[in-house]
Structures
1.
Amino acid sequence: MTEKPIVLRAAEVFQAAVEKLAGVVPDGFHERGPGGSLLAFTGSRIAALNGILSVDPASAAPAEIELLSTRAEQRGAGLPWSIRLRGEPEEKIVRIAADHGLTTITRQPFMLLPLTDGSLPVPETVPDSVRVRPLGGDEHETFATVLGGAFGAPPAIISGLYTPAVLDQPFLTAYVAEVEGVPAAAGLSIVTDQHVGLVNIGTLPAYRRRGIGRAVTGTILREASAAGAHTAYLHSTDEAVPLFAHLGFRTEESWTAFTA
């Protein structure tokens, strides 16, 4: 059997991780289209956490995207949602997205990092006053407050998704970086099938440009590697690409996202 390209395998693991997350959040649901595209809603008010995710070109057929778009409107209860595909979509899919009100198109760099001994990022020098540690579900409000402040979102949006029960799932780990005991940055790792996905690495404005976000990222990578993960993946904004490239990540491809 021919081995799948690393980037395709990482994309499939990411899709399965989203499906798994939708299966454990309080208001989540998920289903697959006939060709394998995923429809998953987490109940969040964030469009990227609801909608259609297709990682195999064969599953991104217009008929399947149309079918799942109709299902998204039926089951989404008015929540914002998105369509995300690898690469450039064909024109029919652009029209389908527009017909369902998804007229904003953005590109998302998909970045990978092999977690071998030789490529793990070297820990950067950070002040002794900075401590990165995992958070349990009983600290979900701390996680929500830091991420909300980092991304300019109400903490209730974060805590409504990452509840105590969700943060205590074995495949999820939330982290916080504290400066002299004060929470300053946070991030989330999702470890499935020997891959680790990095999600929502954010630093409060008053603590930026001190290497604290890199310290969170480095901690996640080293702990995931120690637990057996061999590949890390993430979707980045264009602005954050240099930060992750500095840690060794490489942009493997660009994804397309449709939102309202």
2.
Amino acid sequence: MILDPVRAAIRRRISDVFNDAEKGERPVLRRADALFPPDSVAWRVNGDVVTMMIGGVSGLLLQMLHPAVLAGVWDHSDFRADMHGRLRRTAKFIAVTTYDHAEAGQAAIDKVNRIHRKLGGVLPDGTAYRVSDPALLAWVHVTETISFLDAWIRYAEPAMPRADQDAYFDEMARVGQALGADPLPRTRAEAEAVIQSFRPALRADARTREVADMVMRQRIGAPAVDAAAGVIMQAGFDLLPPWAQTMHGQRPPLPRPVVRAGALTTARFIRWAFDGSPNRRTHGRDVTTFERPAGS
């Protein structure tokens, strides 16, 4: 088709955002032998580029409201020099644990667990924390999961049945459990209850604002990509519950209707670009590496 080269060029640009070619990174194959089956809700939700980016931003902004989670980022992350890299690694982890071979997914989980076991520190008030604390891992898990789901609902499937939403939490609990998170919600109602139970412990201070500013001011390079990223970052903030927006104490510069219309247009455009893409196919055991066909 006459527009195929255009679609392919857009896909290459998006692939470059999420994969460091100099390090040999390639898009994750969708495999029939993944941790989740191809007909799972996780496959449906976790494969949409724009909604996962919006949800990822929103989830990160929620997570950092917990002082110990923020301290883990502050003490053990190179976020100031490489926030894009941090976001990219999170996206890769989700892709691998959702779509790659089950052994690759488990290996990614094991790697994160090894890192978490080594990390800890002391909060500004003198309280000790461990990154491997099951409650902290539960906060990270539930905020990330509900943010991915809510972004999908807002910009892809507004009429998503509640049963499917519950199934998503139940499926994603498999990864949360493997990472040591506790408590683990398995329905939307349980997820919302867990978030409410954490609210008394949440705080926002100068460190929160600094990390949030780094997230919201992300620049990737090309002007067109940065323009789209700016809308996505603002859509991520807009996805936050009102109480979390108030805690962060900032507002996107664009009006809410403009942000939502821009994010919806971007999501639809990227879906169009990936329609018919090789990395939308489900591959069998015999396929072990990503091959980029000429012109795709």
3.
Amino acid sequence: MSESLTDFLEAAAVEFRVFRRLFGEAGEIAWDRTLDWLVDEYFRLDVLGLENVPARGPAVLVANHSGAWGLDAFVLMKVLTRSLRRPLHIPAAPLTFRVPVLGSYARKKGAFPIDPTLGLEHLNAGELVGVFPEGIAGLEKPLHERYRLRPFSPGFAVTSVRSGAPVVPVAIVGAEEAYPKLGEIPALARLFDLPYFPLTPAFPLPAKWLITIGEPIEPPARPSSLAERSAAARSLCAEAQAAVQGMLDHEVGRRETPFW
């Protein structure tokens, strides 16, 4: 390979990396502005109970996961970070970071790859961690089962007991109607290497969103034995799930239509 061709290819590679970086940054700015518009104008989102999130110190925010594409995670991160002026760190599946623009945006805003401790390092640093203990099962719910929680994984409760951080229950209403799951397309799930590919509107429907934040649940003092710690975590997990389900039932029951 001639020296001139080598120089050309190296210069082209540099230009491509610069273009990709600039394109990514522009995409992240556009997505951030789109989220602002969705939250404020399109979903007309209201937040109740912000005072229940500690102004300082660690806390584990535990929310229901809903809507076929998991937009609720981006909305929750946007709203709470903007309102509390504190970053919300959310453990996200590897798939999140594979998506162009959205993956880099999520990482910059505080998302981190799921690990067994579910953000213990952030909690020990006095920060906020947000979790969706239903996992992908929460997004796979069909429309007729919306707002019926799937079993919570107790990992967040183990981390809460270990760190001493309170658990703050969060109920998100509106995402189920914005991105209703009407079915699945297995062929596309295999094609894109996804856990599932939902049949849902390409653009979210204009549902009215409401985020309700409940009173903190203090974890018990960390027991000395493994068996006692496991029992304490299971109890805390059940209490948190009951709190979130209770808030969902209340808020869904009092609305006249999802599009009010």
4.
Amino acid sequence: MTTFDQQQAGVQMTLAGLAYVDEGLAINKLKQALIQELLKTHYATQGLWSLVWGPVVHGWGDNLVFVAQHAQTAEYSIVLRGTVDQRGSIWEDVPTEQKTFPFFPASTAPDAVPKGKVSSHFLEAQQALLSGRDPDSGESLAQFFSRVGKQTDITIYVTGHSQGAGLVTLFVPWVLSQSASWDGKVNCVGYGFAPPTAGDPDFANWLSQHATSFQVINPLDVVPFGYAGLKDIVKDKVPEAVPELYRLAIDAAIGIAELAGHWQQPQVIIKLPQVQLPESIGYLDQVGAQHNHNSYLYLLDAPQTDSDPSILPKYR
């Protein structure tokens, strides 16, 4: 079993943070912006990772995926973008329904068909991204890895922040299901930062038993409490005592989640150190600050990216 590597987590969180770069740009300009960000040597990525597939953007939910490769180790990372400020992207986070997950590797359960359900919106997003093609080569993600998977051995990280972290838990088993037809051994490791719950207990238990996926959480970030732990936001005062108005919103979200089904985070949860902010900052601003991708980099002792710096260092 692969153990959690904080240095690698800093690298993967950096890649996840770069997925937010210049959102809304045309795909060719977005690609160039990503290439330039990956060249920066003052990030945890040290300029050693380069864009080798994508980016692909799915219009309905504004999801984005790209693949980066390390110049020295030849490791790959599938990078998934989190929620952006668009209606479809925000709607994707609402747990309205669960659907059976179709990408379990058959080899992990020779005596029974694996089972488990995931958020229908997350599944739709995954399927849309899998149908996308690299803007230059025309390859799908499956075709790209089928080609590079002919190497003797291959390591693939899957990373994302927020909504992207929820999708990490769907893409890890997808990689394992695809790799059955590849030539060499495959080491697939998921690093999901601030992940909302993606699936039901069966799905979470399968992932915990048959895959390596780290759910990396700031204990004062509300996002990882959705959908499975919504009640704990009020009980545990995350990130502080919850104002009455927002308690009503949380109660409504609990009702929506319960109507959709039962939810459970996978078992491998990595809790980061926490930085309590003063109440004077305001509840919603605290929520945003604790969830910020650069806040996760700071809590991982990794350099922040150049966009949207975290305020946590001011209060440590």
